[in-house]
Amino acid sequence: MTDLRRLLTTLASDETVRVIVFESADPDFFLAHVDLTATPQAFAGLMADLPEGVNVFQAVGEQLRNQPQVTMVKLAGTARGGGAEFVAAADMAFAAIGRARLGQIEALMGITPGGGATQYLTERVGRNRALEIVLGADLFDAETAERYGWVNRAVPANELDEFVDRLAGNIAALPDDVVAAAKLAILPNDHADGLARENDAWAGLLFRPATARLMSTGLARGAQTRRGEQDLEGLFRGLAR
Prior knowledge:
Blueprint: H1 2-12, E1 19-22, E2 29-31, H2 44-48, H3 56-65, E3 70-75, E4 78-80, H4 82-89, E5 92-97, E6 101-103, H5 117-125, H6 127-136, E7 140-141, H7 142-148, E8 153-156, H8 160-172, H9 178-185, H10 192-206, H11 209-220, H12 226-230, H13 232-239
Parallel strand pairs: 1-3, 2-4, 3-5, 4-6, 5-8
Antiparallel strand pairs: 6-7
Helix pairs in contact: 3-4, 4-5, 5-6
């Protein structure tokens, strides 16, 4: 997160950059989720440079949402939890059919999303579907995510690179000031109050002993191993049985 925020800050003042495309070198995962073993000390640097009114996770999404360049996600793997929040924070997201998967798994860990998902999802898909995503805690395929409005479009996997590269290239080739003017006119919604409510809800659950037990047991059963992450929802649902 530190490197990402530093990159976005550097690019924000670079007028030669008009589009930023995020993709993963890992064919199975775009962004897994927040590191379950992270300690408060790991976030000390981010905490020292935290914008007012957001937690360390929300700060990443808000910086991405307010980036002067167009931000795109090329989603060809799994994005869960904080990874799915990153996808929802970007200006546009395009998902590979048969490969992309999106999910907010936090409820199975005894918490609620804490990096903007409650606000970004409600804006994108509506309250009823946001509740389904957050409380159902299932993985969504590309076609369903498109139908819900979670991503812009589901694209055949073998066409995803060409599609995103063409769109990004077309935007980057627009006349001077057009991208900036469009982003100024089509502002992201102000979620300040909602992000504060989200943080209160998340923090109120995070430090309970039951939550710590769930996460530690999940880690012992294979969470954050490559095999365990293939069906993380199944792994955590199994802990309740």
